[in-house]
Amino acid sequence: MNAVISSEQLTMHFRGCDALRGVDLDIQPGTVFALLGENGAGKTTLIRILTGFQSPSSGSCRVCGIDPLSQPLEIRRRIGYVADQPALYDWMTVGEIGWFTASFYSDPFFDKYRESIRLYEIPEDRKIKNLSKGQRAKVALALALANDPELLILDEPTSGLDPMVRREFLESMIGRALSGRTVFLSSHQISEVERVADTIAILHDGKIRVCEPLDQLKGSMTEITISVEDPLVATPSFPEPAEILCETTSGRERQIIVKHFDAAMIEGIESSQSVVGVRVRAMSLEEIFIAYTRGSITSPESIVSSQDDSLEDHRAVETEVSP
């Protein structure tokens, strides 16, 4: 099956900033693919390249089998895009902006748009400027879906929305994937993504740290807590294929995040010098994200707070993609 999105060693260098540093992707059709990353990780830069608004410094990519560099307009005809702050004409009404956008597409566009607007219970005669943020997001989604695109790209689409609107918005993406279409969801709202995504990629410092099916990723990650008598004794080694991602020491306890841990390894750890106890537990996606992006075990509350308060290092160059 041909990939909907594929990239090889994509790099993007801005003055004083490497936004992307060798990104490889292979996204299959009929999936909800979630790209997770902190603010400034390079998510919007990657989307701009995939949609033909930005030329990469090096590397290549294809979207729906098309090169965005050579055929950017064809890419935009075949995909839908929703940003966290959709660029809509405030002076138009809900009906007028659908009629205007329909002029760029085939005849069924306007009818499908009006059907979505009725479903979202938004009056067609209301001015865009008088809509709430949640209603604006629904109008943007209706515009993006009216052409029944092969690929729907959502860049932080639920930022600032109330919980009910966020849930409705994301759950509609599951039905989209079940119909054979593909959803590319960029976000740092990890708990929401976990409910709908099939595949997870974590982008950090311009690099893809991991890209796996969600169930496979969660099944491969384990937190090990080792209690020792002597805090100066080295942490026991783990046999292959186990891989230690990070370790935190607190007194006589060692918290270790391990990938590909096997329960059969517990006996060997317990028999190691100075070890008096071993506890094992599965990890949430939020904890996995922290381990890959921070390299240490941090409370979920502190990581979310720091993400919400931070600004993107290259905000000036990561401008919003127009729908």
From TrEMBL:
Report the residue ranges that make up the ABC transporter domain in this protein.
Answer: 5-230
Q: Where exactly are the transmembrane stretches of this chain?
A: none
| One GO molecular-function entry | ATP hydrolysis activity
Under the heading Gene3D superfamilies, the entry gives:
P-loop containing nucleotide triphosphate hydrolases (3.40.50.300)
Compositional bias annotation for Basic and acidic residues: 312-323
Sorted keywords for this record are: ATP-binding, Nucleotide-binding
Which residues lie in coiled coils?
none
Which Pfam family is one of those matched by this entry? ABC_tran
List the residue ranges of the region (Disordered). Answer: 301-323
Record's protein name: ABC transporter ATP-binding protein YtrB
Q: Which gene encodes it?
A: ytrB
